[in-house]
Design goal:
CATH topology of the largest domain: Lysozyme-like
Helix content: 25-40%
CATH superfamily of the largest domain: Peptidoglycan recognition protein-like
Radius of gyration: 17 Å
Structural class: alpha/beta
Shape: globular
């Protein structure tokens, strides 16, 4: 189970040499979404398949909705780099990486998002990945990364059961934002501080928000932490 090309008619095999075995016999239980930040999808494809670049992903989706399959899902692609999500430090060994051809400054096209939704549904079913385990690159590396960025429509994915969202209203009191952020999955480290976490959180759940921490930030984070604690004892729960 989980080792073949998904049954999507527009998937194009295009093997990257940049991969290795998943460490400690790990199985993927997360999906990380990226943008390429390159001029064209073809330029991104070349880089993801360049041995000297030492980067890759399992899939790349063009703006027209074409899907390139670069690394077999049971193998470890090199897309997440250093970062953490919950207790997971080696995110590459636990995740499927999907790159979206986008510079980060313009909306994602309808054909591209539709192709992503089909691919996500297939991968999530095959590996039994829960919606809350579909995350942004900026979630796991908030001090370094901003992809897939504020133009990406996470609410749309959540409506289709492919990720999560929160529309809870702000309370009249201030909750413990960082405590709840850690319970949800964000981690403070030597390189990641509270400002980085707030920025990454807003990129995903409050795009366009700015200024100091507010009640709305705290209310949403409390809701996410309560409903989707990252390190569940039973991963199938």
């Amino acid at each position: 189970m989980g080792e073949g090309v998904p049954p999507l008619g527009d998937v194009v095999p295009f093997a990257s040499p940049n991969f290795g075995p998943r460490r400690e016999a790990a199985r993927p239980d997360m999906i990380v979404l990226h943008y390429t930040a390159m001029r064209t999808a073809e330029a991104a494809l070349a880089r993801l398949c360049d041995p000297e670049a030492e980067v890759s992903a399992h899939y790349l989706i063009s703006g027209t909705g074409e899907i390139w399959h670069l690394v077999e899902e049971h193998m470890r692609a090199w897309h997440a780099g250093a970062g953490k999500w919950g207790s997971v430090c080696d995110v590459n060994s636990r995740s499927i990486g999907i790159e979206l051809a986008n510079g980060g400054t313009h909306p994602f096209s309808e054909p591209q998002v539709t192709a992503l939704e089909r691919l996500l549904g297939d991968v999530m079913t095959r590996w039994q990945i829960r919606p809350e385990r579909v995350i942004a690159h900026s979630d796991l590396a908030p001090a370094r990364k901003s992809d897939p960025g504020p133009k990406f429509d996470w609410r749309r994915l959540a409506r289709r059961g492919l990720s999560i969202w929160s529309d809870v209203a702000g309370a009249v009191y201030r909750q413990n934002f960082l405590r709840d952020a850690e319970r949800f999955g964000y981690r403070e480290t030597e390189d990641v501080n509270a400002a980085h976490i707030l920025h990454a959180f807003r990129l995903r759940f409050r795009p366009g928000a700015s200024g100091p921490l507010c009640d709305q930030d705290c209310a949403i984070m409390e809701d996410l932490a309560a409903r989707f604690p990252v390190d569940r004892i039973d991963p199938s729960a």
